[in-house]
Amino acid sequence: MRVTNNMIADQVLSAIVGSRNRLNKIQEQLATSKRINRPSDDPLGSTLTLQFTTAINALNAFQRATDAGQAFLRATADPLDHIAEILVRAKEIGLQGSSDTAQGTRSAMAAEVNQLLEELLSQGNGRFADRYLFGGTQTAAPPFSATRDASGQITAVTANPLGTDGTVQAAVADGVRVQTNIPGSTVFSKTVDLFTGLINLRDALAAEDTAAVVTATTTVDQGVTQVTDASGMVGAAIQRMDAIGSLNQKDLTRFESLRSGVQDADIAELYVELQTREQALQASLAAGARAMQPTLLDFLS
After folding, report:
1. 3-class SS at 264?
2. Rounded to whole angstroms, how far apart are CA atoms 78 and 88?
3. CB of 227 within 8 A of CB of 187?
4. What would the pLDDT profile of 233-262 be if each residue is shown by its tens digit?
5. Which range (26-40, 189-203, 264-278) has the least confidence?
6. Got the DSSP string for 11-64?
7. Which of 9, 45, 229, 299 lies 20 to 30 Å from 112, alpha-carbon distance?
């Protein structure tokens, strides 16, 4: 078969186009630092990369939920500590007020308990960002509201009619959900009503009613245990989420390493190959210049 100029031109052109395409691919890999930029680059590798990316995205979502849940729980821990301090102080006042030597000083004690009651209400309506800490699932409305007498003293505290006992769950790992709040009912009224306990203690002190002071002090003491238990629940949840978050982070690092091993390019190797491909392209152009008519070579250039 006779080799014509057109056949030579086609072969040279094919060699030049092939060299140019391979060079372009290397330049793209260098620009993106990725060995795989489209499924056609490596179908199996693309499938693996997609699987690893899906796992990474899920783990990142779990980590965001874990971080948000921990932040809310930690924001709850401080008010619980303060509430416990309020009740401990109220208990101390109650014990002092139940003594016969407290005669004549109970009015001042009642005034202090009244301030503790106001602070307890403030803590009960505490917020983190735009959410009420003890509102259960009703985090957009204040959990507690006070009824006051003509002098402004609290006579009763009522919970949100929609409830304060709802729990909020967060998905922190595959198939794992953790409670990220402590309902107001668990803290303030699970066994005893904290607000009623302080109201009764204040009023008993003001009335110089020793027996009622003793009864109210017992209620406040039970409230200390109630709040301490709630604090323990918060601490346990934070520790559990810390452990889960650590495991998620290890898995995240592992999957990112696996994806990098499949998808990422070896930059040093690419620079060597780039030089090789550039030399191959120059060689193709030089061969074409020798084998083809000048006019055709001019056209290809």
Report:
1. strand
2. 15
3. yes
4. 999 999 999 999 999 999 999 999 998 778
5. 264-278
6. HHHHHHHHHHHHHHHHHHHHHHTBS-SSGGG-HHHHHHHHHHHHHHHHHHHHHH
7. 229
The residues facing 148 across adjacent strands are 154
Q: Are 197 and 36 in contact (CB under 8 A)?
A: no
Tokens of 202: 């204040």
Instruction: Extract the tokens encoding 174.
Output: 């595959």
Q: How confident is the model at residue 20 (pLDDT cuts 50, 70, 90)?
A: low
Helices (H), the chain: 5-32, 43-97, 106-124, 184-188, 194-206, 210-263, 267-291, 294-300
Residue 183 confidence (pLDDT) above 80: yes
Of 162, 186, 179, 225, which Cα lies nearest the Cα of 72? 179
Residues 180, 237 contacting (CB under 8 angstroms): yes
Quick one: CA dihedral 193, 199, 202, 208, positive or negative?
negative
Predicted local confidence at residue 49, as pLDDT: 87
Looking at the predicted structure, is the pLDDT value of residue 275 above 90? no
Q: Give the pLDDT of residue 4.
A: 55
Question: How many angstroms separate the CA atoms of 45 and 86, rounded?
Answer: 61
Report whether 180 contacts 50 (CB < 8 A): no
For residues 16, 19, 25, 30, the Cα torsion angle rounded to the nearest 10 degrees is: -120
Give the dihedral sign, CA 55/56/61/64: positive
Q: Of 201, 198, 178, which is closest to residue 188 (Cα–Cα)? A: 198
Q: Beta-carbon neighbour count of residue 249 at 10 Å?
A: 13
Please give the backbone phi and psi of residue 138, each rounded to the nearest 5 degrees, phi first.
-95, 70
Q: What angle do CA 275, 28, 288 make, to 5 degrees?
A: 50
